[in-house]
Amino acid sequence: MSADAAKGRAGNPAFEQSQQYLFDRLAAAGLSPRFETFADSSTGWEQVTGTLRLGGPAGEVVLSRDRHRVALAINSVSTPAGGTSFKLVDAGTGTSAAAYEGKDVRGAVVLASGSLGGAWQQAVRNRGAALARRTRSCGWMRFAAASSGSRTTPKTPSACW
User: Fold this and answer.
1) What is the pLDDT confidence band of residue 159, given thresholds at 50, 70 and 90?
2) Tens digit of pLDDT for each residue in 81-129?
3) Would the pTM of this model clear 0.70, i.e. be above it?
4) Which residues, in sequence order, are CB contacts of 126 under 8 Å at separation 6+?
5) CB atoms closer than 10 angstroms to residue 119
6) Domain that holds residue 8
């Protein structure tokens, strides 16, 4: 289930195939596997669309529901009908005050390679950033410099935002 082909998350056909594979293997071993469902009284919503672009509405698609299936972080919320835009700021490790010298992160999405807790404290709590995201946690992308906007090629096509 954790293989790249299974996309590592529930809610996509490859993940469901992984579940079926395990079910079949258990049955072949003489066990009596079963799938169980449970009632859930909590409220929720269904993702209809979702796209993350660099450079505004006409920019490069980094993540999309159509391409990556799971393109939302846990506890995501709906955006206004027209979407939202944020400036991206690379803060290096993002865990010290020095990482933010000369950088305006108020209202921005901060990319940091250090601990998420430390980056959140420095960026969101101390400086008013909209979000701090740990870039190293999924091998996705590392911005070379906030001013250049350049980035490296993803190591693996994963939906980690």
Assistant:
1) very low
2) 777 888 889 999 999 999 999 999 999 989 898 888 899 999 999 999 9
3) no
4) 97
5) 27
6) 1-44
Are residues 83 and 157 part of one domain?
A: yes
Element (H, E) at 63: strand 60-64
Place of tokens 């960026």: 123
Q: What are 69's two structure tokens?
A: 């299936």
Cβ–Cβ under 8 Å, residues 107 and 123 = no
Mapping DSSP onto H, E and C, the string for 68-119 reads HCCCCCCCCCCCCCCCCCCCEEECCCCCCHHHHCCCCCCCCEEEECCCHHHH
140 and 64, same structural domain?
Answer: yes
| Token pair belonging to 55 | 């450079």
> How many angstroms separate the Cα of 18 from the Cα of each of 5, 12, 13, 72, 138?
9, 10, 9, 21, 21
Q: How many domains does the chain have?
A: 2
Task: Report the alpha-carbon angle 102-93-153, nearest 5.
Answer: 100
Q: pLDDT tens-digit profile of 21-73?
A: 999 999 999 999 998 888 878 777 667 777 777 887 888 887 777 777 655 66
- Residues 105 and 157 both lie in one domain: yes
CA distances from 85 to 69, 79, 122 (A): 21, 10, 21
